Amino acid sequence: MALTVSQVARLAKVSVRALHHYDDLGLLSPSGRSEAGYRLYTQADLRRLQQVLFFRELGFPLEEIRRILGDPHFDLRAALLMQRQLLSERASRLDALRRTVDQALEALEQGKHMDNEMMFEAFGDFDPSKYEAEVKERWGDTEAYRESSRRTSRYKKEDWSAIKAEQDGLLGSFARQLEAGRAATDPEVLALAEAYRQFISKWFYPCSHVMQRGLGEMYVGDSRFTENLDGVKPGLARYLRDAFVANAERHGVTS
User: Which pairing describes strands 39-41 and 3-4: parallel, antiparallel, or unpaired?
Assistant: First the structure.
């Protein structure tokens, strides 16, 4: 049975205004209308709304969600697997932060000082300035570099920790797929490749499929990237490159 906009709003715990906005954006248009002209949502519409809300929870902008869901190659199962992976990574990070908060509370209540290393353990040790000079020399005149600089200049230590945790989680997922013997063209691997592109776009600069393919070529063309990635799993750099190329081809980028 089709549901009205108010029924869907109550069910999904969103506002009627938000549903109207999604309709105006072409993000979620109801499949039907009543005789009086009111919006009516089908089960398929609810599944699409669920996807919108999953992506929103993960921090994707509405325009990007519209593009993803409008892709003729959109695979619901692959999207759910990608979302599960990203949410698992977030849960792991939040759990680490919760443990640190608990330790801080315990130390405070007992009148003790936390160990210095333990105090900041959950924030990771990623140093974003390590490669800054080289990055500026290679890409300083590009819009992607300028956009990345604008964003990263506002990041705090916890942001860099989140970036590292998310990237480590994605690379770990790629490594497990490689170890399982799945081809770089496997739907689950392509979903990871798309998630990695979204990771770059979310934190640094809008990463097109052409640019992602270029990143893959750099991973195998620059020995430092290759050694770093293959340190996670032998062959990972080439596997990433192949997955990025396949993902680009899936979206019509062939050269």
Answer: antiparallel
> DSSP letters of 122-160?
GG----TTTTHHHHHHHHTTSHHHHHHHHHHTT--HHHH
- What pLDDT digit, counting tens, does each position of 89-123 carry? 777 777 777 777 777 777 777 776 555 555 445 44
Given a contact cutoff of 8 angstroms between Cβ atoms, the answer to whether 121 and 100 are in contact is yes
pLDDT digits (tens, 9 = 90+) for 55-66: 888 878 888 888
Distance CA 244, CA 166 (A): 18
- C-alpha to C-alpha distances, 64 to 55, 68, 129, nearest whole angstrom: 9, 6, 29
Mean pLDDT of 5-16: 93
Task: Report the residue count for the chain.
Answer: 255
8 Å CB contact between 169 and 88: yes
Q: Does residue 245 have a pLDDT over 90?
A: yes
Structure tokens, 200: 């770059």
In the chain, where do the E strands start and end? 3-4, 32-33, 39-41
